[in-house]
Amino acid sequence: MTSRPPMAVPQRQPQRTLSGSGLSQSPTHQRTLSQQYLPQSPIRKSETLTEQSPDLGDVAQGRYNTLPRRGGSRLKLELANDGIEHPGFSESPQTLDAISANKAFTPSRVMSMNDVSDAGDMTPHTSRCQTTDEDLAPLPMPRRRARFVVPAKRPEPSSTPTTPLKKDARPKPFSLETPSIAPRYPNMGKAEPIGTAKNKDRSARARADVGLGFADFYPWNGGHAEDQFSDSIIKHGYFDKAPAQSTQEASSAKAPLFPALKHKTGLHTLSTIFTGIMNSRRHSGQITSASTFKPPPRVTLTDTKREIWLKDLANPAISLRRLSRTIPHGIRGKILLDQCLNKNVPTDRAVWLAKCVGANEIRAFKRKGVNGTFVMGGEAKWIRDWTVFVEQFVETVVNAFSETDWKSKVTYAIRLATHLYAEHLLDRDHYMEWLVSGLENSNQAKLPMWLLIVQIYWKDLLKLRRHGRRLISAILGHHSAIYFHPDRDILLPLSTRLQSLVESLLLTSPENFINPGTWFKYRDSLLVPPESANNESRSKLLKSIGLRNDYLTSSNAKSQPALRSIVVQLLDSIHRAPLDDTIPKQLWKTTENKLSVIRTILEWCTSLYRPGVAKVYVAATLLRSPEASDIDVTRAVLDFLDADALQENARKQLVYHFVSELARSGHFSVPQYMQWLIARGGIFDPMQTTPDGPCITRLLVEIPIHSLNDSMKNLRATLLRRAAFSVDLESTDIAMAISHVKKTLSIPLDPNNPLLQKKPMSLKKLSKLIRLSSRSLKTTVSSWLSDEFIGGVAQNLQSGKSGVELPKATFEAVRALLETTEEYAMLENVLKLMVSSSNSELLACCADTVNLHLPVFAATGAVKFLFQTFYERLKTIMEEQGLGARPLLASLADLAPRLTGLEDVAAQLQADLIRIDRSSAADASSPLSDNMATQLQDAETELSEQIEKLASYTSADRPTMERLFHAIIKKLQNYWGKADERQRLCCILLTRLRVFDIQHFNTLMRGWVQHIRKLTNRPPIHQLLPPLISSGCLSLSMLFATAPRSQLQATQFQPSAVGSASIYMQEILQMLMMPFSPSPAMTSEDCYRFTIIQDHARREYAKEIMPLIRGALAEYSASYNQQVPIHQPLDEEETKTQLLELLRRLVLVDPMAASQTLSLKSPDPKLAALIETWTTKLLVPDDGGGQKSFEQVLELANEFTLPFCQVKLSLNLATDESGGPEGSERLQSQFELLSKAIDNAIDANNIMWTGMLPSLSSEITQHMRNRAETRFLDLIPSLKNPPGDDVFDKDIYMAENLLTVIDSIFRGSSGSKVSPLSGALVDKLADLWDIMASKNIEYGPLRTAVLLHWLPLVFSYLTLYTSPTTGTIDVSKLTGGGEVRARALVVLAGLVQELDNYPSSNLGQKAFDIALALVDGLPEEARLQCVRAVRDATADSRVRYLFSYAPNPAEVFMLSHRDKPPLGVQERRALALGITVIPERLTPFAFRRWEILNEPTPNVGENDTSLSLTLFDARKIK
After folding, report:
1. Mean pLDDT of 419-434
2. Model pTM score
């Protein structure tokens, strides 16, 4: 193809090369319709051939059959209006009018302003070119559709101008000019170009030159032969004169070449040739000279000229080359961006201006003559400041919602910022940080706009861990907030958009979801799939992400003891709070082996170390849960009973109760159990059915009979008769028990009943007999009470047959019987049946029942339903009875604070109760009823009247209140210990007095209790304080605050305490444990309410009761030294039993508080021995007490004794503590003994004790952890120290035990004390990497062992540092933490790539996930060190994502220095072989983005075209 000489080269448009923006084509400058029709000023003339259109890009578009741009020149307007006729539209040209499509328009044609009509006629006239319109061929342009209507033509004015014309000073359009030195030649008779036409008006010069042509210069008109492609032109190129045809090859080249190639050196010769070719090609594409670019200079202009310059910049018709001569000063930063926005500067021209300004600003630092470090720092700072300007610019425009043209401005600002980002003209890290921070802190109103902006940079953000993780967290946070928003339906469009983004992110970037803290916080909002999602694939993806996050948080010491400990800890949480919905979910997620979980639940349910009956209902609820639906519960229970021969009678009763609950709900199959018994041979020995017999056979007797059908009853009877068990006698006993219940409840019996003539049995005696009966009798009696008796009463009330409601006394009797049988499912049914009652006192009793047995009803799931039901009844009764609803209100106000999620309701109930008490102090519905008032003596009557007078005042008179208080207290002390009813009446008066000023009343009560505390001769405390506590006059917090005489009372004995004052704490402790029966001072309702307070004290005041217990033990130990002996409450056996039970409950509620309180130092050896005895009884109930060594405590440790071993271990470590150097030596010896005991336990495979290590002091746990870590790391093999075959399996087993110990200590310690990764661990991890990377066959078995055992163990150890609690620690503040973690990350990155060779192990993904969790807390300096370490070593995208670095495309460029050093041996050898070796020296080439301008210099280079040749898939031929 011929090349045209660089003469009269048209002005070139921005190249589509590296220097361009690379994002989009240059925006077309548009004009409004009115601007296109307004005629130009008559001043402008077409004087020279240089007044041509400068925009050859439009011409090029016309050349390639594309639509021309509608610009500002009249020529462009003609092109745009091509094919339009007036008036109306014309689809095809009909005339030879200048606007018609038959007229050809070339760049040389411009409209003469002298020919423009007054009406703005668009008709073009003859231009001053050498050719006329008749001589030019029409352009091969496609027919265009009509765009708009041209105004009608007006008469043409006279050609003579009426006014003098002025010279047009505006830029002249560029036109193609024939060079004056171009040689001419005649056409020599050749035909004129096709498409030319004769024009009668052409000039004489044009006619004279019609036969001349120009050598190798052809103005483009679309019809030249060079522009017509053919097969020959494509293959051989275009020639003015075809070259002479060379002689065709006569034969193939195989004959001369094939023998040379067959020679033994042929292949080498061919290789040498191709090597030389490749070497030449490599050198021809190198950069051999540094950049000589000089940015356009800036000059100082006036404001007016600067505005003109900016307007010219906004006009695409003005050449950038012309504007580059006078770039004004003062346009930088935010001003530059605002000017581009206000002037609507095209994006590519705005980027050009930013580059010019930026290049000058950056070069200003170099001109200061400072060192390179300062220059680089100054350049980085300038770029950072420029990035901040761009961020502020975008944010300001986006937030300007009130502006009318907001949409267009936002579009422009976002487009400009995107171009700057794509051109690498911003600090990308800072810009990405701004994007993510904006999305994180955005409110819901601005969230759609931030999502729109962020999605532009979506791929770049997700490729970097530091930004992708935060991006996912922000999106999930907004999605979760909207998902749980009360107005979710209003935000549905935004929620749908976020949901679609989350779904796409799940598919494209799952690694960014590997963030345990974020995943566990927001995963619930992802459970519901969208309607259009593939649920199966989506669930698999969510499960995979969930498992990967669980691996980083859960304990990976997957030994059975560790799992059992986790299950037991979850179950023990019911001692601190009622069972909720989260505990079962966490429980079933601990392991995939559900059978092991069920066995642990059964062991926990039947353990004697767990008091109470609530555990039975908790275990039954867990086995009824949907997660256990695929497990055969009956088979699991039978296997447990078959494997564990229960010897203790208490454990057997728990099993019978548990099976009874499951059988009642149908989850335990009685037919399957009978079949199982028959398969084992049945029952023959009568001992197998006795109460002391085996549990597995006695269960047949204890099964609830009322839940069996007739066939099952007959089969049961048959099996029991073979063991000499009388079923008829059993039926008789059940019938007799029901008859006694009827007699006690005053229910009429049958006339033939033998009990008709006997005296009714007392409720207390009847309850005792039922308590000693079998479970089958208990369930039958409970079923009769619930279904037949209470059910019948409720049915009669609902049907209206009887208007008499159930008396409160009868309900209390039924409740007492059901509590005796411990059939709380039946009691729950009774409470539900009593809801329809209108008796507020009866409903208050029902609410108190729920309050006392809250853990049980929470386990059955009925507590919220019962509370809501009673709460609705309260609203109804208050409307009907008014103040008569106070008893129910008081009961619900006491119950509501114990329920989670009802804090507002509890506050409202308490406020209503205070309001009612204040407004009705003298009302008949107050606690002081009329019949009570008549029983008062004169003094009490006078006090009551004074209280009623006090109620009439708006504010309490403190002196009067104090006088009344002391008067009532004096009367109360007079009745103390006399079992007088008036004692209760005094409590009622105090209750009425309290409501006037609660704070002052509490102050008076506290002072009086402290006075009682000091009395040496008084009646027992339990005869005075319980009525006050039950009525609400004395709170538990006040009681515990006044219990010790001083701060030292709880730790040591005070000799000054004598008489009753010396046993005060024992009496208080006894009062909180002993049951109370109705008396003149306390009614049954008061006793039941005080029982609730006792249970509340055990659960909510564990930390206050533990010092009370220690003080009581101190009083008891000091009683032996008293001269005058006094009765000690702890001498009573019943009190001792109750104290042991209370201690067991408190240790389970708060083992830390128990350990700290009991392990305090005491100078009294008797107290220390007493505490040692009681703690030993907790651990070994049948033991007489005494000291237990460390080894004995560790041997006794299991999942259920762990809290008690913890207390015992803390006590042993604190017993020998004393001040001075001797105390330190004793403490060190204790550490050594404990360490030795732990080592022996580990060697004996006893690691059950690990759960109590976190509860010990920080010094002990740190000592134990360091010891275990050292032993663990010493066991890890390396190439230098491979393990022996004889100890190989033993080392692995020992490492697993040690890892369990480390895991228990690590996860139990507080987050603030967590230490960083150790350097020894990283070294061992690097040793394992060396083993995996070794290709030596000799290390094959070792590689296999590392792959199967050691890497999983080390990875499990590393997960201790990836939990959310440790991930929030600032590693940079730890000494050496960042450097060690960086080394660990580099090793993990190497293991990730090495483990790709073993895809079946899945260890590569685990290593990558661990690295992701560790890198999140890595300091920036350490991260950059990692980047420098791995940048040149690997190109793995996972490693780049991990360390958050993206390779800069400009970094690969190298500058080749073509030096001529002396030739070496290799160069001479290459020259001898005919290979051209060009010596070179490569150095990094500084690729400056700011100096890549899209407007070329005046020097024309190769392939400088207005369109990139890559659009045509063209290649540059060299």
Report:
1. 92
2. 0.65
